[in-house]
């Protein structure tokens, strides 16, 4: 929810004191202070305050610190920060995310390069109010990246992230490259939005040059004991040649809702702008079933079919914190046509 498109004029004021040097190879060394950084949009003022930057080189070791009321950044390594960021991005993208980040050939890495970068948040309210008014990130959240040659590892931790009515509690994550794969592991205590919630969430991901394997699990701690184990493969395509932006191949998975185990059969979902094609989606438990097949789009004739058999509408309460008065079973079919 960025506001740039709504604004005709943005003004900023500050004062800058700097005593820096730039050696021939382009490293920026020295001290700089930005005082009283302030942004103004119409009648709203956003005070960031002072920002202090210090960059040093001692016996082939670079150290950089940035201190402000918003966040604190620390870097230490044997290459300058810009070199560190460039090589880390190349390592992450080469051979892992080629289908998302287009690369022009393989890159050569400095095998001796190493470094560690850490960002810790303080009061992000002025920045969030300016760029994304509905976003909240708790104090002492952290993002860290370390690199040694062609090995990169990233970590993230935050007590709370909120965006509008969506709340993510205690997120911990790790991303690292493992041979031909880029792996990610994330854990969350709870995600909630309105009456919907899920506890003890884990997400495991493995990216290669053509797509992403995902496994998502959760297990709620309330009396309903809902849990899920969903596995899927995401592939990224070109709408001009493949006809879709990404494809989700849902693998055999299971959900336990209000004590009943449901099977999610193999199915495929294709997506491009204003066009979703679902093939053979089926969720079933005993005689109960929900099946979906067809196209949801904006083209004449696009049709999405839904079949229900003995489907207990009270199942909706399995996802809610407070039960609704829902009773009965549904059997039949329906269709939506553009």
What do you see in this structure?
- Strands 14-15-18-19-17-16 form a 6-stranded antiparallel beta barrel.
- The chain is 6% helix and 60% strand.
- The mean pLDDT is 84.
- The chain contains 2 helices and 22 strands.
- The chain is mostly beta strands and 338 residues long.
Q: Could you give the topology of this structure?
A:
Layout (H helix, E strand, L loop, with lengths): L9 E12 L7 E13 L2 E15 L2 E8 L2 E7 L3 H13 L20 E8 L3 H7 L3 E3 L4 E7 L2 E13 L2 E13 L2 E13 L2 E12 L3 E9 L7 E10 L9 E5 L2 E5 L2 E5 L2 E6 L2 E11 L2 E10 L5 E10 L16 E9 L1
Antiparallel strand pairs: 1-2, 2-3, 3-4, 4-5, 5-6, 6-8, 7-9, 8-9, 9-10, 10-11, 11-12, 12-13, 13-14, 14-15, 14-16, 15-18, 16-17, 17-19, 18-19, 19-20, 20-21, 21-22
TL;DR of this structure?
By secondary structure, the chain is mostly beta strands.
| Backbone CA Rg | 25 Å
Sequence of strands across the biggest β-sheet: 14-15-18-19-17-16
Low-confidence stretches: none
| Helical coverage, percent range | under 10%
Structural class: mainly beta
The total of beta strands comes to 22
Mean pLDDT: 84
Assess the beta-strand content as a share of residues: over 45%
Write a concise keyword list for the protein shown above.
single chain, mainly beta, 6-stranded antiparallel barrel, elongated
């Amino acid at each position: 929810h960025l506001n740039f498109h709504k604004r005709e004029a943005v003004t900023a004021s500050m004062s800058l004191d700097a005593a820096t040097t730039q050696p021939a190879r382009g490293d920026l060394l020295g001290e700089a202070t930005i005082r009283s950084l302030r942004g103004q949009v119409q009648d709203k003022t956003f005070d960031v305050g002072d920002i202090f930057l210090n960059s040093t080189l001692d016996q082939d070791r670079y150290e950089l610190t940035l201190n402000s009321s918003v966040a604190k950044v620390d870097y230490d390594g044997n290459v300058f920060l810009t070199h560190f960021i460039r090589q880390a991005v190349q390592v992450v993208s080469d051979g892992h995310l080629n289908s998302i980040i287009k690369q022009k050939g393989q890159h050569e890495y400095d095998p001796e390069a190493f470094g560690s970068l850490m960002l810790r948040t303080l009061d992000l309210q002025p920045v969030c109010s300016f760029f994304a008014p509905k976003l909240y990130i708790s104090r002492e959240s952290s993002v860290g990246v370390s690199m040694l040659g062609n090995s990169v590892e990233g970590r993230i931790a935050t007590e709370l992230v909120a965006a509008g009515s969506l709340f993510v509690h205690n997120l911990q994550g790790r991303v690292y490259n493992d041979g031909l794969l880029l792996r990610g592991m994330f854990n969350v205590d709870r995600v909630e939005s309105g009456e919907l919630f899920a506890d003890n969430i884990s997400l495991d991901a493995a990216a290669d040059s053509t797509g992403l394997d995902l496994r998502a699990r959760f297990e709620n701690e309330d009396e309903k004991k809902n849990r899920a184990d969903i596995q899927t493969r995401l592939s990224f395509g070109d709408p001009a040649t493949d006809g879709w932006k990404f494809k989700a191949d849902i693998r055999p998975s299971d959900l336990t809702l209000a004590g009943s185990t449901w099977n999610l059969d193999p199915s495929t979902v294709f997506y491009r702008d204003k066009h979703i094609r679902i093939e053979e989606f089926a969720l079933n438990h005993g005689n109960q079933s929900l099946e979906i097949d067809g196209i949801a789009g904006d083209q004449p004739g696009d049709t999405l079919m839904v079949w229900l058999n003995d489907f207990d509408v009270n199942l909706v309460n399995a996802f809610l914190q407070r039960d609704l008065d829902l009773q009965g079973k549904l059997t039949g079919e329906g269709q939506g046509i553009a």
